[in-house]
Amino acid sequence: MSVLIDLKNRGVRDVFFLVCDGLKGLPDVVTNVWPQTIVQTCIVHLIRNTFRLVSRRDWDAVKRDIKPIYTAPSPDAALAALDEFEEKWGAKHAAVIRLWRNAWNEFTPFLDYDVEIRAMICSTNAIESLNARYRRAIRARGHFPTEQAAMKCLYLVTRSLDPTGSGRARWTMRWKPVINAFAITFGDRWPGAETY
Predict the structure, then answer these.
(1) 151 and 92 fall within a common domain
(2) Which Pfam families match (predicted)?
(3) How far apart are the C-alpha atoms of 64 and 162, rounded to whole Å?
(4) Closest CA to 62 of 77, 80, 45, 48
(5) Is residue 52 in a domain?
(6) Interatomic CA distance for residues 94 and 90, integer angstroms
(7) pLDDT digit string (tens) for 115-127?
(8) Which of 51, 82, 113 is the last residue of a domain?
(9) Range of the domain at 35
(10) Which residues contact 35 (CB under 8 A, 6 or more apart)?
């Protein structure tokens, strides 16, 4: 909670949405600090957890039958797809149905966004990968004499992801449609939305 208060004190005025992977209490804390935040579960984690509950011989059939749920154009279409999935697999994989029903309130906000936004917010994997690299670098060094030394280490790890800078243009082009979709979706809260 104190980290979130510190972010707010440093000028983070608004958080549009929070993508989390089941960390208990985090959604409540974030919505206490930023009440307009939309909480969404990580779709990749939800799918991954689905396959942990399914026997390997059913994976292909379940994969085919679960896809209409998370690619549905609307929450109503997704609910209809989940009902069809339950009719077919409910008796054999009741735990999967319970998993999706329990996560439903945090899953459905995902369906309200344009395809460009969905592609960027469906997972927490990118930040998890970056955090793993940070942990590996910190573990290798053991300790740091100053805070500046620690920040320099994290900066160098971040720079090592794209040492030549050639990926910057690719990422810029990938984010342009997303930024435009954000400006439309969150126009009243998006700073400078009128310029897009």
Answers:
(1) no
(2) Transposase_mut
(3) 36
(4) 48
(5) yes
(6) 5
(7) 767 777 666 666 7
(8) 113
(9) 2-41
(10) none
